[in-house]
Write a structure and sequence with these properties.
With 975 residues, this protein is of the alpha+beta class. Among the domains are: 346 residues, glycosyl hydrolase (family 31) (Immunoglobulin-like); 234 residues, Sandwich (Immunoglobulin-like). It is built from 16 helices and 52 strands. The strands form 9 sheets. Strands 5, 6, 7, 8, 9, 10, 13, 15, 18 and 19 form a 10-stranded antiparallel sheet that branches. The chain has a 10-stranded mixed sheet with strand order 43-44-48-51-50-49-52-47-46-45. Strands 32-31-30-27-23-22-21-34-33 form a 9-stranded parallel sheet. The chain is globular and about 100 Å long. The relative contact order is 0.09. Its EC number is 3.2.1.20.
Length: 975
């Protein structure tokens, strides 16, 4: 449910009573670009681009006006401090900018630049503003949760060149920061080679405070020339767009910096955009964009494909990758941000033997306000960069296991009987699912924390029906609170001063689904405490232990606001302007709901599940996200793969897209292919707009319902593998679905591939069909391992593209040799009903005859796993020893014994060996030994069957019911 026309909702009377408001609301037809700024319409973006253009025009004669005063440099406890001086006029007048470069124990470096006058509050605010005078310096309070320990080994090196300071740091002293004094700049090196360069192009630009000089009456121009070279002052002091005027009480305060990745052709990250995984250039040219990538969380429904236009979330984290080397930067800033990308290619010099050409990727970052705060990660592998970033911003939470299953949603299931009917029909057609969702129509007159008494009078009965099969219900709660009398929520919020404020300090009123609304300010600790109280069972009546929450519209979406959001000169807790925190806003609301859901009942602590639309760095700690209001079109299906991959490599892997497309009515082939693709989203939800036709899977009809059901059963049988991948993400930050470059960092041909994916460490390689009418597809293999079709064991081997026939019922899914995949093959109605089901292990032998894999299990509900209530096993197979073994790699704790006892009877019921050797053809049994077994059972024979593969297919063997516990160590001997 999101920003579509109010005419499609049930309160058309608003328009009849207040017809003048019509022009303020977002229309339904499609995204209107004129409602959102281009760079040329965003004052600070235009200025910073013009600054870059001028520097490029002057080229060799251009000199950055920023220098580091060498006499100011100090170094202590892993931190270099100094003062950067900015020359602001021909007379040589300079502004002081405090600089700190922190070297962290993890090997990460952090560069922060502030402005002394603002830092000390020595500025004057315009328009009698109540805003803070400092640059916003609290972004780290929301985004950073660890990894800031200073390096004990970092030290200034004595071998720096004249005019530079060199710091050696990182693992084994392999990293160096070479700090140039004039103009100021930093080269970050690994093993002596520059990997990341700051201000190499001289585009550092921190717009300093200066008093506004009004034009004397009758004069066309100000008496003084502009304070900053090449600066257009028409938007420095106020800016208008779409009928709204931004007052800018602090004047111009943007920060900009160029960041170059020498020798790197591919950069990834900075979601959210409907674009390719490998980011495109943004300064024009064939196949490139003309606009920078924009990060400004906004309600952009029916968004366009292949565009750098802003969407709902912002993660200002970028990776650069080349053969066997990955580095990254994290731009910690919560304000509107734009990123330009230019790729500079050099060709080899024919006279220079052995010197190849290379590509430098030059990026230019600029934000409207706040500090310049940049973290630099030197890798060298993708997993190293993502882990370092995740140590700072937090790992994805380990979710409740049900949330990894299938979610059934639409705007809206209209009554409690409707919910029960959908649940019943999913069972009738044997379609597994875990969660059914309610959009805003369940509320009484769009008032959150209420139920419509006419359409949802039986909430307890509804929840009990769902609970019979361990299913859950998710209800939407948004940040806008309806402004009407006799609504205790709004009365309490306003009386306690918990709403976001206008620039003059009064409560901000805007328009959203309920009509006139106020927005809870979840930057305020008191607001969070109040918000937590609203979710208690005794307060939010009609909710139960199987009710969970969906946070929508939290950019925030304001129908009559500039760019469909809140005015930038609004004020939040601490009198920070909304401009400073806009991109963080959605995360604070998500955080408040997360805290509320952890303990809805006193003494009962459970893992929450909360979906968010708006997000920022750190949101991964709180739940899942989805890609917003997509369309039922093939190109939107195709775009969902790189978009979810990009979320994963950007530290927020619990991601998905609306299966089937939110807007429009998908034809049955598209719907079917979308389900086949959706089973590979970490978060899988079918969703649809209120004006679309109903499209629950059982309505598709034969053969579509059967094909969709089969796809969902694959998802459910692989839940052990998915949950194991989620666990890995929760402890290392690793993406759950992975692009080719992450899995094969040395394979240059695969660096731009973004239409296929690997699932965790399983070796499963999927290539969803996203083209209308496709009967075949090419899947790319990057290594020499054998790959086997998941369903019939057809062998694919050799680097390059391989053709696969894909009739509608076919899902292109391969298994890479060398892996062991855990499954649960008994069909169930929901994931929780699989809790005590036995496992199947699929052993996929590599070219060396070996295979390995992992299984992680816990109760999927509580936090008991933090006290050892879990199972973590590693499985190993080696044809040299001809044995499959199970090894404990778990962490014990006080709750380990009780959990192992609970799971003691859960066994492995089948082992399938794909690629079984020919010499096994005569074998009919294997020998099993298990720890703790009685002496008579320490080595027992178990039946095995060997099957010869037809031409082009692999041999395989099946060990039936070895009767080994998932909780113990054991060995199956094939010798």
């Amino acid at each position: 449910m999101l920003s579509v026309s109010l005419t499609s909702r049930s309160w058309a009377f608003v328009f009849l009573v207040i017809s003048a408001i019509c022009a303020l609301f977002t229309p339904i037809a499609a995204v209107k670009h004129e409602n959102f700024k281009t760079c040329a319409q965003s004052g600070f973006c235009k200025r910073n681009r013009a600054f870059a253009d001028k520097a490029s025009e002057l080229s060799s004669t251009w000199e950055s006006p920023y220098r580091l005063d060498p006499t100011s440099i100090t170094f202590d406890n892993g931190k270099l401090s100094g003062t950067v001086l900015k020359k602001i006029n021909a007379a040589g007048e300079e502004v002081k900018l405090p600089l700190t470069i922190s070297f962290l124990e993890s090997g990460t470096a952090r560069v922060t630049l502030d402005e002394e006058k603002r830092q000390k509050g020595e500025i004057e605010l315009r328009n009698e503003s109540k805003a803070r005078k400092e640059r916003y310096n609290e972004a780290e309070d929301w985004a950073i949760v660890g990894g800031l320990e200073p390096s004990t080994g970092a030290a200034i090196s004595a071998d720096a060149d004249e005019g530079t300071t060199k710091v050696v740091y990182g693992p084994g002293g392999k990293f160096q920061a070479v700090i140039r004094h004039s103009p100021v700049g930093i080269d970050f090196r690994r093993d002596g080679q520059t990997q990341v360069r700051l201000n190499g192009e001289g585009l550092l630009n921190m717009e300093h405070w200066r008093p506004k000089v009004d034009k004397p009456e009758g004069e066309e121009k100000p008496e003084e020339p502009p304070a900053i070279p090449f600066e257009d002052d028409t938007s420095l002091w106020e800016e208008s767009f779409g009928g709204n005027t931004d007052s800018k009480p602090r004047g111009p305060e943007s920060v900009g910096l160029d960041i170059t990745f020498p020798g790197f052709e591919h950069v990834y990250g900075i979601p959210e955009h409907a674009s390719s995984l490998s980011l495109k250039q943004t300064r024009g040219g064939e196949g490139n964009y003309d606009e920078p990538y924009r990060l400004y969380n906004a309600d952009v429904f029916e968004y366009l494909m292949d565009s750098p236009m802003t969407l709902y979330g912002a993660v200002p984290f970028m990776q650069a990758h080349k053969k066997d080397s990955t580095v990254g930067v994290f731009w910690l800033n919560g304000a509107e941000t734009w990123v330009d990308i230019i790729k500079s290619k050099s060709t080899a010099n024919a006279l220079s033997m052995g010197v190849a050409g290379h590509t430098d990727t030059k990026t230019h970052w600029f934000s409207e306000s706040g500090l310049l705060d940049v973290f630099v990660f030197l890798g060298p592998e993708p997993k190293d960069v993502i882990k370092s970033y995740s140590e700072l911003t937090g790992y994805t939470q380990l979710p409740q296991e049900f949330s990894v299953g299938y979610h059934q949603c639409r705007w809206n299931y209209v009554t409690d009987d409707d919910v029960i009917d959908v649940d019943r029909k999913m069972d009738k057609f044997n379609i597994p699912y875990d969660v059914i969702w309610l959009d805003i129509e369940y509320t009484h007159e769009k008032k959150y924390f209420t139920w419509d008494p006419l359409t949802f009078p039986k909430t307890e009965e509804m929840h009990k029906k769902l609970d019979e099969h361990d299913r859950k219900l998710v209800a939407i709660i948004d940040p806008h609170i309806k402004n009407v009398p006799d609504y205790p929520i709004i009365e309490e919020m306003r009386s306690k001063g918990l709403a976001a404020k206008t620039k003059d300090g009064s409560d901000y009123e805007g328009w959203c689904w309920p009509g006139s609304s106020y927005w809870v300010d979840t930057f305020n600790p008191a607001s969070i405490e109040w918000w937590k109280s609203l979710f208690r069972y005794e307060t939010f009546k009609g909710t139960f232990h199987n009710t969970f929450i969906w946070n929508d519209m939290n950019e925030p979406s304001v129908f009559n606001g500039p760019e469909t959001t809140m005015p930038k000169d609004n004020l939040h807790y601490g009198n920070w302007e909304h401009r400073d925190v806009h991109n963080i806003n959605g995360m604070t609301f998500h955080n408040a709901t997360f805290q509320a859901m952890v303990e809805r009942k006193k003494g009962e602590v459970r893992r929450p599940f909360i979906l968010t639309r708006s997000f920022y760095s750190g949101s991964q700690r709180l739940g899942a996200m989805w890609t917003g209001d997509n369309q039922a079109r093939w190109d939107h299906l195709a775009a969902s793969i790189p978009m979810t991959l990009n979320q994963g490599i950007s530290g927020f892997p619990f991601a998905g897209a609306d299966v089937g497309g939110f807007f429009g009515n998908p034809e049955k082939d598209l719907l079917t292919r979308w389900y086949q693709a959706g089973i590979f989203y970490p978060f899988m939800r079918g969703h649809a707009h209120i004006d679309t036709r109903r499209r629950e899977p059982y309505l598709a009809g034969s053969p579509y319902t059967e094909i969709i059901t089969q796809a969902l059963r694959i998802r459910y049988s692989l839940l052990p593998a998915w949950y194991t991948a989620f666990h890995e993400a929760s402890v290392s930050g690793a993406p759950i679905i992975r692009p080719n470059y992450y899995v094969h960092p040395g394979d240059e041909k695969g660096f731009a591939i973004d239409d296929q994916l690997y699932i965790g460490e399983t070796g499963l390689l999927a290539k969803p069909v996203t083209t209308e009418g496709a009967t075949s597809t090419d899947i790319y293999i990057a290594d020499d391992e054998p790959y086997f079709d998941y369903f019939d064991y057809t062998i694919y081997q050799g680097k390059g593209h391989h053709k696969i026939d894909v009739p509608l019922e076919k899902i292109p899914l391969l298994m890479q040799g060398g892996h062991i995949i855990p499954r649960r093959d008994r069909p169930r109605r929901s994931s929780s009903l699989m809790k005590y089901d036995p496992y199947t292990l699929v052993v996929v032998l590599g070219k060396d005859g070996k295979a390995s894999g992992e299984l992680y299990v816990d109760d999927g509900d509580t936090y008991d796993y933090l006290e050892g209530a879990s199972i973590h096993r590693r499985f190993l197979f080696d044809t040299e020893t001809n044995a499959l073994t199970s090894i404990d790699i778990g962490t014990s704790g006080p709750k380990t014994p009780a959990y192992l006892k609970d799971q003691a009877k859960v066994r492995v019921e089948k082992v399938i060996i794909v690629g079984a050797p020919d010499e096994w053809s005569g074998k009919s049994e294997v020998f099993v030994s298990e720890e703790g077994a009685k002496e008579s059972q320490r080595r027992r024979a178990v039946e095995m069957a060997w099957f010869a593969g037809p031409k082009g297919k692999a041999n395989y063997a099946v060990v039936r019911d070895p009767k080994v516990s998932i909780t113990k160590g054991w060995k199956i001997d094939f010798a």
